[in-house]
Amino acid sequence: MYKNIIVAVDLAHGEAGKGLLARASELVDPGGTVRLLHVIEDVPSYIAAELPRDLNDRRQAEAKVELGLLTQGADSNVATEVRSGAASSQILQCAEDTGADLIMIASHRPGLSDYFIGSTAARVVRHAQCSVLISR
Q: Which 3-state string (H, E, C) describes the chain?
């Protein structure tokens, strides 16, 4: 089993996050930690200039509330975290920062653009220093 699991969720797909969290609760050791992580993508500077200055703070607050709703009824010790930046790099950085021994992430069916650019899940798998579980 695992002592420190990161469950990376996209709040736009909440049902996938619930499924991952349930699976993580089964895989975590007693006394272990599950960290529910959501990454807010940065807004390009040319767009950010036209948006309200407090938009990022509001997005962070909303994400924390939604993560809290996902953790209700969780069986294990669940922590939540919201980061900003590129999703794959922030997931990998969180794993390094916390000493995670498993990263769990949902993946969609790849489209043609993913073969050229690569999905977040694919980047995490390629660069992770710990085990990665991909859920479809």
A: CEEEEEEECCHHHHHHHHHHHHHHHHHEEEEEEEEEEEEECCCCHHHHCCCCCCHHHHHHHHHHHHHHHHHCCCCCEEEEEEEECCHHHHHHHHHHHHCCCEEEEECCCCCHHHHHHCCHHHHHHHHCCCEEEEEC
Specify the CATH class of 2-135 in words.
alpha beta
Task: Give the model confidence (pLDDT) of 25-83 as tens digits.
Answer: 999 999 999 999 999 987 776 776 667 777 778 888 999 999 988 888 776 689 999 99
Token pair, residue 123, equals 């980047």
